[in-house]
Design a protein that fits this description.
Layout: E1 10-15, H1 17-20, H2 29-44, E2 48-53, H3 56-63, H4 73-97, E3 102-107, H5 109-113, H6 115-130, E4 134-139, H7 153-163, E5 168-173, E6 194-196, H8 200-205, H9 217-229, E7 234-239, H10 245-251, E8 257-260, H11 268-274, E9 281-285, H12 287-294, E10 305-310, E11 317-321, E12 327-332, H13 337-343, H14 351-355, E13 369-371
Parallel strand pairs: 1-2, 1-5, 2-4, 3-4, 5-7, 6-8, 9-11
Antiparallel strand pairs: 7-8, 9-10, 11-12, 12-13
Helix pairs in contact: 2-4, 2-10, 3-4, 7-9
This protein binds adenosine-5'-diphosphate and ligand VHF.
The ligand N[C@@H](CCC(=O)OP(=O)(O)O)C(=O)O is lined by residues 16-18, 54-58, 80, 138-139, 141, 152-154, 214-216.
Length: 373
């Protein structure tokens, strides 16, 4: 089997905290040089590469001389602000030695949830790539409160992959890939060499958070692969310590775990809807409405809504759930939560009498709806 990276023109590479900082002992400059050197070679082959690099917090902790990772958010944010300096300084000087410019891009969930900012981020990244600059992306940890946090850079890597419609996402970590169980705990676990991104069996194999400095563990990588597959991107999870790993993958060698995308890519607007991590509310459908959406591709009418949860305004993204509470779709609502409560279960012809006006007959129009299950 050839590597899914072989024909990739646009690639997102994510390196985790455990690798960048050699388990918390400060930045591993030699390792950074090796990856950056390979990225420079990939750009010389005419490929576009975006680097999502973790390590700000771990490097900040090392620079501040702290013995262990603090629990307080403000201390973690302070550490990130200190460590991010070291991270970009290191990459900037290494890329410069390869005659390449690097650019720092710090994002939060809120930036990607807002359609205008999302489109701005996309155009900026595309412009940077067009200028042969290597964007280096991290979460904007110093401003991110719980509500706007992405949480981990595996998720950020997948969101960026979808944002720029990359062909593949390469997640470099401290293990050789996904094993059938956590190799730290189950020594005879075996490497999964190829699988279908989104296969629920993979989620079972990946336990909780892994190393002491990383945040996500393997589960967030598997979910990232599932997310990236929605835009048609394949994911490789492999060891960042493997010699020339990026170049060998690009030459077609299958290394680590290849998680292949099999579904047809969502269009860009539905992709953006699907990539929202936090939603303000949800609407609960009766079984007939679930069937109308799923099987007949219909818009969501108020008549099929049994309940409205949370508070949201017109134009916000809400979850569409079945009676078991499983999210089957999500979309942009035409009515606020309080309006939706007043028209739930009613035919569209009764909207005007209930609200005093009618904007649209649908609660969520089909064009603003993405099916998830
Ligand atoms: N099924 C699995 N296969 C491989 N690693 C796993 C698995 N389940 C849990 N892990 C753990 O996930 C860790 C990698 O996650 P993490 O420390 O967050 O890395 P990173 O900093 O690269 O994001 C591994 O060191 C490993 O202990
Ligand atoms: N933004 C954080 C990264 C957090 C993170 O997701 O780390 P990891 O699980 O190692 O990819 C930092 O730079 O420290």
């Amino acid at each position: 089997m050839h590597s899914v990276v072989r024909h990739a023109r646009r690639i997102v590479v994510k390196v985790g905290s455990s690798l960048v900082t050699a388990e918390g002992r400060g930045l591993d400059h030699a390792a950074l040089s090796r990856w950056a050197g390979q990225i420079a070679a990939l750009t010389a082959q005419g490929r576009e590469v975006v680097l999502v690099s973790s390590g700000a917090i771990a490097e900040g902790i090392a620079r501040l001389g702290w013995k262990k990772r603090p629990k307080a958010i403000n201390e973690l944010q302070a550490a990130a602000a200190v460590g991010q300096m070291g991270l970009v300084q290191a990459y900037e000087s290494i890329f410069r030695s390869h005659d390449l410019h690097a650019a720092q891009v710090l994002l939060t969930h809120e930036d990607l949830a807002d359609r205008t900012r999302y489109l701005n981020a996309r155009i900026t990244l595309r412009t940077l790539l067009g200028l042969n600059v290597v964007p280096i992306i991290n979460e904007n940890d110093t401003v991110a409160t719980d509500e706007i946090r992405l949480g981990d850079n595996d998720t950020l890597g997948a969101l960026v992959t979808n944002l720029i419609e990359a062909d593949c996402l390469i997640i470099l970590t401290d293990q050789s890939g996904l094993y059938t169980a956590d190799p730290r705990k189950v020594p005879d676990a075996t490497l999964v060499m190829d699988a279908h991104a989104g296969d629920p069996e993979l989620e079972r194999m990946a336990g909780g958070a892994g190393s002491s400095v990383g945040t996500g563990g393997m589960l967030t990588k598997i979910l990232a692969a599932k997310r990236a597959a929605r835009s048609g991107a394949h994911t490789v999870i492999c060891s960042g310590r493997e010699e020339n790993v990026l170049l060998r993958l690009a030459a077609g060698e299958a290394i680590g775990s290849q998680l292949v995308a099999r579904q047809a890519p969502l269009d860009a607007r539905r992709q953006w809807l699907a990539d929202h991590l936090q939603l303000r509310g949800s609407v609960v459908l009766d079984d007939g409405a679930v069937r109308a959406l799923r099987e007949d591709g219909k818009s969501l009418l108020p008549v099929g809504v049994k309940g409205v949860l949370g508070e949201f305004a017109r134009g916000e993204v809400v979850a569409v759930v079945d009676t078991d509470g499983s999210e089957i779709a999500r979309g942009l609502v035409n009515y606020s939560a309080s309006e939706a409560r007043r028209i739930a279960g009613k035919p569209s012809s009764a909207i005007e009498a209930a609200l005093g006006y009618m904007d649209e007959p649908e609660l969520i129009h089909r064009d603003n709806l993405v099916m998830l299950a």
